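Risk mitigation, structural track. In case the binding assays with flavin-adenine dinucleotide fail to produce interpretable data, a predicted complex structure has been prepared as a fallback.
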Amino acid sequence: MSDSSILVIGGGVAGAATAWSLTQLGAEGVTLLERERTLGAQSSGLNAAILRTLSSSRALNEFSRRGADFLHSPPTDFSPVPLVHTTGLVLTADASASRELKESFQAAGPDSGGVPIDRERLRELFPALELEFEFALWFPREGRIDIAALMAGFERGARRGGATIETHCSVTDLLVENGSVCGVRLESGERRLAEKTVLAAGAWAGALGRRAGSPLELEPRRRHLMVTTRAAELDPGLPVIWHHGREPFYARPESGGLLFCACDEQVVDPDHCSVDPKVHELLADRASAHLPSLAQAGISSLWAGMRTFGRDHHFVIGPDPILRDLYWVAGLGGHGMVCGAPAGDLAARELLGMDSGALFREDFSPSKAAGTSPFSAADSSTLHECAAEDRNRL
Ligand SMILES: Cc1cc2nc3c(=O)[nH]c(=O)nc-3n(C[C@H](O)[C@H](O)[C@H](O)COP(=O)(O)OP(=O)(O)OC[C@H]3O[C@@H](n4cnc5c(N)ncnc54)[C@H](O)[C@@H]3O)c2cc1C
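Fallback model:
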């Protein structure tokens, strides 16, 4: 295989969207390397597929809205099917979290797409729900993303634009010469040279960068999702419900049952991201407390995936602060499926030296993720060692 002008490591949404954007902007010699058999096999295929745009950061709100615009109206040849099922999304908050949710809503301004709702309206929207809340918002244009269609659109479009995509291809190290990254070494021992290298390896990006001498710190956190068995009384058109507070959770219909998440978080080694048996009890307790009609339903599937964060939950998109010719598209946390398209576009513009808009460049600059001290140490004995306010984030 010949050398490339741009090598992208990782075929999740970050890498696939970057490769797609590069080809859309006319780049040649783009190669994406993915170690799994298919693209989207890690976090980008293990997520809750929720389109939600409201968050507590101004830059993220705006970035998410760009992502939502893309998902609602992708380019004509991107996907033969819609990328969003517009079921709507409800955000609720108990007394401990309602101030923060109200402030986020106000800060997002009139373009947020949300409206406050009362108890009666919530009962109409989600009759099966039993929930004490203080503040609730309804977002009629949000809902569920078709992840398979989104990933297929990026992959198909990147190939059509001339990118080479290689799966079953594991990168072991970045090649560094005189402070510049000039390619990668593969597990086979082969060296691949490139003018620019992009680290889009999700939960594994931080370790690959650090081994090469980058100062960036990323923190992979595990979160579990379960889908219940079919429940006859469950309307498949129900909206997404996302509750913030002391006992956060989110849920949406899936395959005749309900996809449910207790918003657990645990810092783990991404190579050991298996299901923690302790999570069964947490999921069962929280689901039956708020959705009693599901008490008889069983678990049809249960899995865990990694949400990876930069410092202060900033995305990490742009050039490495130390290593020349190394670029990052990482730390997309719980927003990657919504923000994949704008993240890929921003990264591609940076790589090609095009104007990318000062706002996002500064907000997501990798130099913000550089650190001398590690993130808070993980305690593997509990599912709750991350800060309470973090569990209320996406
Ligand atoms: C439980 C859960 C729920 C979520 N819910 C949502 C949601 O509802 N909405 C939303 O927008 N986001 C959600 N997310 C977040 C979203 O899934 C992530 O932000 C996104 O998938 C990150 O994409 P990525 O490409 O950075 O990482 P990944 O998808 O993990 O891709 C990284 C890729 O790099 C590859 N790779 C790693 N190391 C190497 C190597 N050495 N050589 C070659 N390839 C390598 C991996 O195999 C992987 O395919 C959720 C995440 C989780 C875990």
